[in-house]
Amino acid sequence: MDSSDRSLPLNICHVQKLLLMVNRLYMLLHSTALLFLFHYRLCFLFQQSESRESHLLPWILVFASEIILSFVWIFDQAYRWRPVSRSVFPQRLPQDDKLPPIDVFICTADPTKEPTLDVMNTVLSAMALDYPAQKLHVYLSDDGGSPMTLHGMREARKFARWWLPFCTRYKLRNRCPKAYFSALEEDDHSDFATSSVYMADKQKIKEKYEAFKEDIKAFRKDRAFSRDHTSVIEVIQESIIGVDIVEMPLLVYVSREKKPSHPHHFKAGALNVLLRVSSVMSNSPYILVLDCDMFCNDPTSARYAMCFHLDPKISSSLSFVQFPQKFHNISKNDIYDSQMRSLFTVQWRGMDGLKGPVMSGTDLLQLKEYFGTSNEFIKSLTQNYIRDLAFGKNTLLEEPHLLASCEYEIGSKWGQEESRLLVGFLYDSVVEDYLTGFVLHSNRWTSVFCEPPRPHFLGSATTNLNDVLIQGTRWYCGLFENGINRFCPLIYGLSRMPLLQSLCFAWLTYFPLYCLPLWCLATIPQLCLLNGIPLYPKVSDPFVIIFVFIFLSALLKHLQEVLLTGGTLHKWINEQRIWMMKSVTCHLYGCLDALLKKVGVREASFLPTNKSEDNERTLLYQMDKYDFRASNIFIVPILALFTINISCFVGGVYRVLLVGDCDKMFIQLCLAVFVIIVNYPIIEGLVIRKDQGRISKSVAIPVILATVVLLAFFKLLRNV
Ligand SMILES: O=c1ccn([C@@H]2O[C@H](COP(=O)(O)OP(=O)(O)O[C@H]3O[C@H](CO)[C@@H](O)[C@H](O)[C@H]3O)[C@@H](O)[C@H]2O)c(=O)[nH]1
Ligand SMILES: [Mn+2]
């Protein structure tokens, strides 16, 4: 780099002006309409009339739902206030010898749900990052304490001797071996794709990879996710004594000690052990955190992140650079919204325009600075970076074992926030990333969202209904509990960060409350339709325009965002549907779990998601067919609510034809029709589909019968 370059910025932030104007105009119109709606509801509640007396309860419930929806809507607008995008110029970074060292942390927990070969692919992709090898250190935390994983690491280290030089020689962009070898020939973006030497080399490496794969497969399978094992720490190195010809990043296997009697705090606990262990080995000022399934899909990510950490204008307050979570197994119409489109496009970009996004999975952090002073042990460490090669020869490593033991944290502040200092990743919640990011922001740290055109990390998304809803239950419990504990964004946050930023956090903790209005609006208006109780204005009443406007404006805004972020009309309706399904199931269970935990009836739990592929189930997802083989606690409410909507619609039409009050009941009829149309795949699953993923008759028949009988009973009761 010559000195003239030094004046050029490493990154630029652009405000998206047109989008900003569209968003603010929408906010103005929609909020005005909401005010009219409140006016309409309040007028009814305060009027003196007979109809008010008999319809009070359903009116209050529907109004309460509208109030909750409006609040969640207001929080959601904070993301749309100032959307930005960024350009990054890694070519302007200082030379390699001036780059700071990085420790990469990868977590795995369970070799049955997280296949060892895939974890090793992530490890290899991280080792192959385009970064000076002496400045890169890769640590794998294995919470399963599995010999299979340790064996995998040794084999991966051997394979890396071939793989890393191959990647650099041919400047590969795709440095995850599995992804590289499974990519189609046309996708080979190497500049050498047509050279015969390259093809020959590729073939040779492919054979080595196959052998490596076989080796891992052949190793005996063992028990998974043990909660009781001693610590194992090993610097992985070549067994053949002698100098490595290839310079390689340091590779360390860490399995912390676990005892059933000691809480291990899941991923946050694992990361904190890595923070301690790495600090006596490589002690880099920056860490890159990866889940075991999030392989590096582009070797330049660390350099991209450095464009922010080394930018003098922002680096002093910058705590982490967040990359969007992207997944390698997303289908075109993504029926479960496994990619979380809105979060990683609309919402994180919006927060980036405020004080920065929430921490979510894959990120590069600057932690040591304030983390160092908060702990006696770390304080004693030298801040200067030395890669101590002596560790390479010493496998006993007394100190790291102490740091990875269960007892080490007893009586310490690890996992807590103490007078504005965070000691590692926080333990108070199963969404440790959300909470740690939130508390960092509360302490005036900022973050940035780094979204290069090519996805830099790719993970495995959950792609069947059951996994999606189980993962959702864990997340929404974790998020909601942060809305009702001392970290409430509207109290703790509001006094420590700007209003809009705390509203963004408030949305994250309170959107699980969608369960209340969705349950309400899927039942009350329908039951009232059956019994001829109007809850909305007549078609001839001008107020009907307000309701229609709010409904359409919400749907159209959502559609605009889906289309703008690369989605299709199909994707839009899929998002509407999965939002309804999730709201009435995992949002509800998440909130209940959080409440039960608060009163002390339930313990925190973290079931890692399944990352191994099941071909038959994957195929269903790829074909846009819902996999209804989910637990009954999810299927029963979905089915019961759907039955209520269909039966009440049929009963409602019959009643309207008999009585002739269509204009009074019109909106309620429309609401039921909307629910039925959006959830049409349930009918398919019930009566049309013949495949494995259809709704099982043995569940469906009793649920439908019971619902219809209850409805009939309810109708009779009203008529008495
Ligand atoms: O006791 C545990 C449990 C999990 N993990 C690891 O944590 C990571 C995330 O677990 P996963 O099952 O993939 O959960 P997800 O819901 O997919 O993870 C998302 O949500 C988590 C918070 O709930 C974040 O920590 C993750 O970064 C984010 O990708 C994986 O690498 C696990 O191996 C551990 O190391 N120890
Ligand atoms: Mn995951």
Automatic annotation (TrEMBL):
Keywords: Cell wall biogenesis/degradation, Glycosyltransferase, Membrane, Transferase, Transmembrane, Transmembrane helix. The active site is at D143, D433. Its main location: membrane. This is Cellulose synthase-like protein G2. Mn(2+) binds at K267, D291. GO terms for molecular function: glycosyltransferase activity. The chain crosses the membrane at residues 25-44, 56-75, 505-530, 542-559, 633-654, 666-687, 699-717. GO terms for cellular component: endomembrane system. One of its GO terms (biological process) is cell wall organization. It comes from the Eukaryota. It is found in: Endomembrane system. UDP-alpha-D-glucose binds at K113, E114, D143. PANTHER family: X-BOX TRANSCRIPTION FACTOR-RELATED (PTHR13301). SUPFAM superfamilies: Nucleotide-diphospho-sugar transferases. It is a multi-pass membrane protein. It comes from Flemingia macrophylla.
